[in-house]
Write a structure and sequence with these properties.
Strand content: 35-45%
Helix content: under 10%
Radius of gyration: 20 Å
Order of helices and strands: HEEEEEHEEEEHEEEEEEHEEEEEEE
Number of helices: 4
Distance between the termini: 48 Å
Number of strands: 22
Shape: globular
Number of domains: 2
Length: about 300
Amino acid sequence: MKKITFLALLVLGSVSSWAQTTVFEQNAINASGTITGYANLGTPVGIYSADDFILSGSTDIHSITVYGVQIDDNAETLLTGFSLYIYADSSGSPSGNPSVPGSGLLEIVNLSPSSTAFTLDHPGTSLYNFTVDIVEAQGTALTLSTGIYWLVVAPHGDLDASVAPLTAYWEWLFSNDINLSDAKIIDPADFYGFGLTSWFPISLIPGGNTNGKALAFTITGDNNAAVAGIDPLKQVSLFPNPVSDKLQIQVPPSIELKSVAVYDLMGKQYQFNQSIDKVLDFSRMATGVYILEIETNMGNLTKKLIKN
């Protein structure tokens, strides 16, 4: 019964004074979400979900907001704390998890709901969004260099996970803004008995939500290159380069990507299904050198790409 409930509910789904801009965002689908959290009663247990994000330059992260739903509409009465983690990328998964203290680049653990670094927003029935002000929580922004990182959040609640699954007080909402690797889930102690003791794609859980490939969150901060007055077009980059599979076109927040044309060295143009903005699938392309002509709201540029 415990296992059935877990899968069924998996399918259902304060701002600091620093100047801030959105450095990464995935918008919410107000329909379904995934389990993520920590139950305090009975046998303490944590089940965690994660999604990745990419930074196009050295960035000071000031705050992170995650978007979720709680069907009983009483999350504030159950919430006892909130944890937020950021991990490096390890071959398309987080390089650590909350059950291994010290494995994260940032670990804000069991932040009190009454903390000035924490905000609970209740914008509508069953909707609950949580914001952690990193500057307020640790006294300074988190500075990360160009690259891919993973976000994990975990509301803590007065629940017994053997009686009421963690989704009883909050689910992290899915997003259609799919970037990079698929969202993952982990049950480090195998509490639910599915063998998910390593990070596993949410969309591939048997009986789960096949659309759960991305989660909804917003990261605010400052792109250090933009603050220093560097030409934003010079910050546009291709990652990874050389590429074997998916190519991410990294752009600073001020850049809007309008179109991308791909050519080989003979001038032949290749058509891509660019349904996911800023991501191109090169997995079936022949090895060699390609030229990308990129059109943006601030001008055009050309980039060379190597396909392995």
